[in-house]
């Protein structure tokens, strides 16, 4: 990426971010050496986050600007005279310069300016409109002056490019929008467990378990009500705000690299993780750190699933028209529509129309369309009381004549041991069971095979010979009867695999995980053709979670384009022809 036109700009922004982060850490009594190590671990050695500084996202300059604002905010209180005035003007200017790059990122620094306005306002409430109280508005006035200068520059630049028209970027963002009413469920599926609701995806906490102490550190410092609390508030506000963005889903966080929305927070999250560990070891902070950890553990114990809603009528026509009726007073959150297997990818295809009791529903604002192994899930952004939901699918989603009828669903809440913690023992209903999805001992990945009923993220389309994995990870969700037999001590996972490779990249190594635990690792040479792999899996691990989740970590995945073989930019790893999960030897 060194040849990219944005390489120098991105590198400069990364260096500015690192410099400001180290300065910010000084205010938390973290030495520069420790701060540098935190930044390296959370942003540079973290390949996923570092990649977001290589790709020319608009969040790269805003990341640097946000860190500049936080640095000036913490340091201006230590300055005096003209130096402080310049710092305040620069802080307002840096905050307003976020607008040309990514207007919504301004929300990240909102707590800073709210804090600066709150102090003078409280002074006037306490002391009345005295001269000293009015003087406390001077820092805020200087900050506002800097912000106005930046806003005028932004307005002039925008008018020069777009005139009085709305830019395409703003129009698209407006169409997608934010669904603030869905914040609780979005936090659950993004950070804790997306599979029961979205049927696919990887939770952020599953990918980065160290964010748990980060959350503890954020809570501890938020309740201390100081300038350092404002930094914690900025991180929390930004994460909560973007969690409400309709397009930020557990799938495209990784598939489309939308993790970059949050990338400026990762060094800060690393800092607060360090502070949480430090505070826990400190006798004076042990109690608040422990209470914060217990509170978060309780939140992690919440379980959200779907349960079926009784329908008075349900039908889907080969033309694509569908209709589901419910008794009055039933709250509905989703409609599951079967139409045969298809590879899960992205947001999938939208229905042409969708109506609830005659009212037209808008995509993003009112519902999302999520491809599932059984067909399509229409997930409403909030539960509604409805008697009839009807619509028309587009031509690519037309249902066969013998398809089962659609099913309505609503959320059900429960509590249990957190799914992210060992022994990862979450039992979730499998939506495929309601449609009589076939289960069997062997999964066929060849064209026309049944693999589309089981694959999750990380798979390309079926081909005559089989299916490639696509990306650094791939997963399947199985609901097989044989492995649940308690009379057997272990199960046997068998794979028919090949590997993609050429030249200097001759092989692929894969780590296999079942229900979150590693069960084996193997390497396949690309020149060796098909190979049969067999792994023994303890039956207790299989029975621990339903559906059974099998995942492949593929660190050697690479695209033919990168190897100079072709223009194909899919990140290929393993090629699978067949997979089976069967009971092993019976217990004596």
TrEMBL record:
Transmembrane segments: 6-25, 32-49, 55-74, 108-125, 137-161, 230-249, 261-278, 285-302
UniProt keyword annotations, A-Z: Membrane, Transmembrane, Transmembrane helix
Top-level taxonomic group: Bacteria
Keyword Secreted: no
Keyword Transmembrane: yes
Signal peptide from the UniProt entry: none
Name this protein carries in UniProt: Uncharacterized protein
Native source species: Skermanella stibiiresistens SB22
Source organism phylogeny: Bacteria, Pseudomonadati, Pseudomonadota, Alphaproteobacteria, Rhodospirillales
């Amino acid at each position: 990426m060194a040849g990219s036109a944005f390489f120098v700009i991105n590198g400069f922004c990364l260096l500015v971010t690192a410099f400001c982060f180290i300065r910010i850490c000084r205010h938390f009594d973290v030495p520069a050496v420790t701060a540098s190590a935190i930044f390296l671990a959370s942003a540079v050695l973290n390949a996923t986050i570092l990649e977001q500084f290589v790709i020319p996202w608009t969040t790269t300059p805003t990341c640097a600007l946000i860190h500049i604002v936080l640095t000036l905010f913490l340091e201006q209180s230590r300055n005096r005279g003209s130096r402080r005035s310049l710092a305040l003007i620069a802080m307002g200017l840096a905050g307003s310069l976020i607008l040309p790059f990514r207007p919504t990122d301004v929300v990240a620094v909102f707590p800073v300016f709210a804090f600066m306005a709150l102090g003078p306002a409280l002074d006037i409430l306490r002391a009345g409109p005295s001269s000293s109280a009015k003087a406390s508005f001077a820092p805020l006035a200087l900050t506002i002056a800097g912000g106005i200068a930046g806003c005028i520059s932004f307005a002039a630049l925008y008018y020069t490019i777009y005139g009085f028209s709305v830019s395409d970027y703003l129009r698209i963002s407006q169409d997608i929008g934010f669904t603030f009413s869905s914040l609780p469920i979005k936090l659950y599926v993004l950070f804790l467990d997306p599979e029961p609701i979205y049927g696919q995806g990887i939770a952020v906490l599953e990918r980065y378990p160290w964010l748990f102490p980060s959350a503890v550190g954020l809570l501890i410092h938020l309740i201390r009500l100081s300038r350092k609390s404002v930094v914690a508030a900025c991180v929390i506000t930004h994460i909560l705000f973007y969690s409400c963005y309709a397009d930020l889903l557990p799938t495209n966080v990784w598939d489309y690299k939308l993790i970059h929305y949050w990338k400026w927070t990762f060094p800060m999250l690393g800092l607060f993780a360090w502070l949480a560990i430090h505070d826990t070891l400190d006798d004076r902070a042990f109690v608040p750190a422990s209470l914060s950890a217990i509170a978060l553990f309780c939140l992690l114990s919440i379980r959200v699933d779907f349960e079926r809603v009784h329908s008075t009528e349900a039908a889907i026509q080969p033309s694509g028209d569908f209709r589901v009726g419910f008794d009055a007073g039933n709250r509905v959150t989703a409609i599951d529509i079967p139409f045969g297997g298809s590879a899960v990818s992205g947001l999938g295809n939208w229905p042409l129309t969708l109506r609830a009791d005659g009212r037209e529903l808008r995509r993003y604002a009112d519902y999302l369309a999520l491809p599932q192994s059984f067909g399509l899930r229409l997930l409403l952004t909030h539960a509604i009381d409805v008697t009839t939901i009807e619509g028309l699918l587009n031509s690519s989603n037309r249902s066969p004549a013998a398809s089962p009828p659609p099913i309505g669903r609503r959320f059900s809440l429960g509590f249990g041991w957190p799914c992210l913690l060992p022994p990862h023992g979450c039992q979730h209903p499998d939506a495929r069971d309601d449609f009589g999805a076939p289960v069997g001992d062997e999964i066929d990945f060849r064209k026309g095979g049944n693999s589309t009923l089981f694959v999750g993220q990380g798979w390309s389309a079926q081909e005559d010979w089989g299916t490639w994995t696509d990306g650094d990870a791939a997963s399947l969700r199985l609901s097989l009867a044989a492995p649940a037999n308690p009379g057997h001590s272990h199960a046997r996972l068998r794979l028919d695999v090949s590997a993609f490779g050429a030249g200097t990249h001759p092989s692929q190594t894969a780590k296999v995980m079942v229900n979150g635990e590693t069960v084996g690792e193997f390497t396949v040479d690309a020149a060796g053709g098909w190979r049969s792999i067999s792994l023994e899996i303890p039956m207790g691990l299989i029975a621990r979670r339903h559906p059974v989740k099998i995942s492949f970590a593929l660190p050697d995945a690479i695209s033919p384009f990168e190897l100079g073989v072709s223009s194909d930019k899919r990140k290929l790893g393993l090629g699978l022809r067949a997979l089976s999960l069967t009971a092993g030897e019976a217990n004596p």
